[in-house]
Amino acid sequence: MTTTSGEFVLADAAAYAQAVTDASEAAGAYYTGGTSALDDDAYDRLVRAVAAYEADHPDEVLAHSPTGKVAGGAVEGDVPHTVPMLSLDNVFDGEQFTTWTASVARRIGHEVTRWNVQPKLDGLAIAARYHEGRLTRLITRGDGMAGEDVSHAIGTIEGLPDRLTEPHTVEVRGEVLMTISQFEHANEVRTAHGGAPFANPRNAAAGTLRAKERSYTVPMTFFAYGLLPLPGTSAEHTEELRTLAHGELMDRAAGLGVNTPATTDVSGLTVDTVEQVLERVGHIAGLRAELPFGIDGIVVKADLAADQEAAGTGTRAPRWAIAFKLPAVEKITRLLDVEWNVGRTGIIAPRAVLTPVDIDGSTVAYATLHNPADITRRDLRIGDHVMVYKAGDIIPRIEAPVAHLRTGDEQPIVFPEVCPQCGSGIDTSEQRWRCERGRNCHVVASLSYAAGRDQLDIEGLGGTRVVQLVDAGLVADLADLFALTRDGLLALDRMGETSTDNLLAAIEAAKAQPLSRVLCALGVRGTGRSMSRRIARHFATMDHIRAADAEAMQRVEGIGAEKAPVIVSELAELAPLIDRLAAAGVNMTEPGATPPAPEGETEDGASGEQAAAGPLDGMTVVVTGAMTGPLEKLSRNQMNELIERAGGKSSSSVSKRTGLVVAGEGAGSKRTKAEDLGIRLATPDEFAELVADLLD
């Protein structure tokens, strides 16, 4: 379900799993040289589609998902931002924009009287730090809290001088991009040095910015959109920067010798009314095709610093600025073929192959189809002209065949009779077809998932190594990992004594993972990280889980009448594998959990509720912001595990039922909502003290 344009329809778990794999592979290629098959816009849309699916299916989140990770997990953000480097929320039409402006007015207590309108440049956000007027560091946005150091690119970016016109200590934020002419020149230079041409200017800018060992350089261009003080900035200058309106800040940046949109035909403009904002939006949109660089919308900001401060900032985006996305685009193209891809659990997902079509600057070549029943319902045929629509400029879909363009040469779509991955039979009893071998059909994907950080966390067992083990016949399922021998591994290519010993040690350590991790590693359909934790906490042991029928399984929070029998059936199917894992010494208990008593009885046989213990007993806990101190190295998944081991329930949203909010650095809207609702707040250090007995 990949596409060279970046448009995806994540119709089901198989489509989602494929999207995660595609995004991870694209990030790896993108951040090591800009050669990804997906352009930067395509990658961003794919990740947003993944995030949207995860929001709707939180129990199916895959460990290697790029969401919430710096550079999709391909690089680490090692340089903290002094002030979070946030994204922008979106609106798509005048009505949505007017509604948003009303919400800003309610927050600040009066109508905004000055707005700044400027193009949303299609580049890569960076922070440029100047010390006493000299450019010393370049940092990417990263995850907003920390970014990647790309200071090696200093001196290659037009519009970002090595020295300011005044010796100030400041940070300039903006976009690095390639103009059309720079992009064409970059590809000429790149191909002359034996490299493949970049797909588009944004991909080219991102790859070039991060490239450290190329024998050539190509120019890029910087446009500023922010100016803020740094530690070491004089008190006088700090006060000036914090009180200037946005338009004045941009004038100040230009005065320091930094490039701003003022040098273009779509310079930032300060206006007084919503009507004038919309007029300016229309003007910039009308110039889009003529600009020498790409834009993907228009940014509208409350201009006055006082209004910005009163409106405040959320965890992901400021409340005083918005991105006005340009209108969606639809085009007609041809359906050339349908491919059938097999996901990690054996789900067979159809993918439409299209005649590539350029839609608003991106090439759409593939689209995910829902399932065979949906194909039949819409009467799609090979050779059809189909309408491809990009809803909200994010998610494309095939609306329907354009029947009046049919010539009679169109052919029916042929559904597979056997699994396209392994040739086994297909279970067609449900709308989503599945290989009869299930997860055994795609053993590489299953094992890679099981070894992931949030499952068994087997360091050194990445996808390439899994393929090597499978191809060598050493591993056919998860239990085989725990039967690997030193001699067997040493016989493989690129496996020396050190790497062999490290891998065996990691596999041995994986045996001690809690039951929730083991259950998640099994990849039971209908479960994920959080659901695996709930099941493990509820039943405490694998024996109790396997003994549960559908009715007992429904007593776990979040498991309904439809999901329960699927989980029970999956566990029965996995019984031989689970037995082998247990025999290999893999842990089958959940630390701190108590097995459920018979219905209506406590553990000692008395009537009543099952006893529970722990410092967070029965409490719903939300974690927000960056953790510090003893919790600094814990991932969000590990924090959730800690909460549940302490008897609590982890949640991602604050509500009246929330009992505690752990607010770290950069906590925003969730902290604010907790304060409004009178919910107890704890710092990372306070929370660490509360659960000290459970910390390693």
UniProtKB/TrEMBL annotation:
Q: Which catalytic residues are annotated?
A: 120 (n6-amp-lysine intermediate)
- Residues that coordinate or bind NAD(+): 40-44, 87-88, 141, 175, 301, 325
- Gene3D superfamilies this protein is in? 5' to 3' exonuclease, C-terminal subdomain (1.10.150.20), 6.20.10.30, BRCT domain (3.40.50.10190), DNA ligase/mRNA capping enzyme (3.30.470.30), Helix hairpin bin (1.10.287.610), Nucleic acid-binding proteins (2.40.50.140)
Keyword line: DNA damage, DNA repair, DNA replication, Ligase, Magnesium, Manganese, Metal-binding, NAD, Zinc
Q: Which GO terms describe its molecular function?
A: DNA ligase (NAD+) activity; metal ion binding
Domain (BRCT) spans 611-696
- Its transmembrane ranges are none
Keyword DNA repair assigned: yes
* Cofactor(s) listed in the protein's UniProt record: Mg(2+); Mn(2+)
Q: Which reaction does it catalyse?
A: NAD(+) + (deoxyribonucleotide)n-3'-hydroxyl + 5'-phospho-(deoxyribonucleotide)m = (deoxyribonucleotide)n+m + AMP + beta-nicotinamide D-nucleotide
Annotated region described as Disordered, given as residue ranges: 588-614
* One GO BP: DNA replication
Q: Would the keyword DNA repair turn up in this protein's UniProt record?
A: yes
Q: What is its EC number?
A: 6.5.1.2
Q: Which residues bind Zn(2+)?
A: 419, 422, 441
- Stated role: DNA ligase that catalyzes the formation of phosphodiester linkages between 5'-phosphoryl and 3'-hydroxyl groups in double-stranded DNA using NAD as a coenzyme and as the energy source for the reaction. It is essential for DNA replication and repair of damaged DNA.
Regarding protein family, the annotation reads: Belongs to the NAD-dependent DNA ligase family. LigA subfamily.
Q: What is this protein called?
A: DNA ligase
Designated gene of the protein: ligA
